[in-house]
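Late entry, written up from scratch paper. The run itself happened at the end of the previous shift, but nothing got recorded in the book at the time, so transcribing now.
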Amino acid sequence: MAVGDVTMPQMHVVKGVKIGSAEAYVRYQNRRDLVIFEFAEGSNAAGVFTQNAFCAAPVHVCKAHLKIDNPRYLVINTGNANAGTGKIGMANAEATCAQLAQLSGVASSQVLPFSTGVIGEQLPVERLLNGLQPALDSLKEDAWLDAAIGIMTTDTLPKGASEQFQLDGITYNITGISKGAGMIRPNMATMLSYVATDAPISRELVQQLLTTAVNVSFNRITIDGDTSTNDSCIFIATGQGGGKQISSTEDPRYHTVLEVLTRIMKRLAQLIVRDGEGATKFITITVEGGADTQECCDIAYSIAHSPLVKTAIFASDPNWGRILAAIGYAGLKNLDVEKIQVWLDDVQICKDGGAAEDYTEEAGARVMSQAEMTIRVDLGRGEAKDTVYTCDLSYDYVKINADYRS
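Output as recorded:
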């Protein structure tokens, strides 16, 4: 059961984007498991991908194709990751691109493939290829919800975000979807995300916008500390909304787009955490007073990855010593623990490195029993600040992952 507000908003149509889906039976029966995006000619694209050295065949192909051309099509299958599949996996990813290119009349390099699901099993490529034409036949502008459903694996719900905004009196749209519930850790956090706008943006700035927004959204979430082999995030600017192209960071319109895109991506990233496998609590971890952003993140992730902290939160047990232990083993040099302050929401649990005088077990338990809470840490050694989002670790997380292939 997802935590908090996970409702799908109105998904605004993005001019120049069409979406189709089909039941290809890659792994699942009687559900969409193949999604195709079609983009207007002249669209500019950018991508960020997993840093896992064992990255999947489609990730290799995507990176190679993005260096050659802007994509006209994306093709996504669920149920099989096509990772750990060697030369056969590469051939299957390339065959998927070639077949879709032939059916749609574009170059193979203008197709980007994506896969998500079980690692180490060969992709049933014939089934996937047979689903391409039905997916193409279903292309339409208002199918974002269908796509969000079609890319799910262990997700319990589709994830989407959408906003309208104005630049120089012209109304534009940014709409996006994501999937992910487990094997989530930054760089990238098993997630896929696809976001598009009809605003006119140069290719260089599309990449810059994406990288900047990802670093405060998808690269600030963790569920279990595992980095997937397939993580990918794509941002497309079709330019079909009209107006003069944004080609400089000095253009005030750039900052408006970045603000909206960041909100969209933070929402999509947080939806992944709210739908974390077996999650019952949504946790914000903010670390301030750091010498730099990196050490704030080191502390935040040390807390967020601690199974002892996460299980205590699941049990609503204010065993706050586990938080201090996670801070202590994060690896910061010359950490002065007597300067550290820690809060659970508005309840200070640690003051100057020891128990806060007015702290009570009842106050800590009250916060721990909430569905949403914030752990705030002040390191007292600088001005840097950063925030990471995570969830608790429950019995159901173990059950879901123990039964994943059954």
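Residues 252-274 form the longest helix (23 residues).
(Scratch paper discarded after transcription.)
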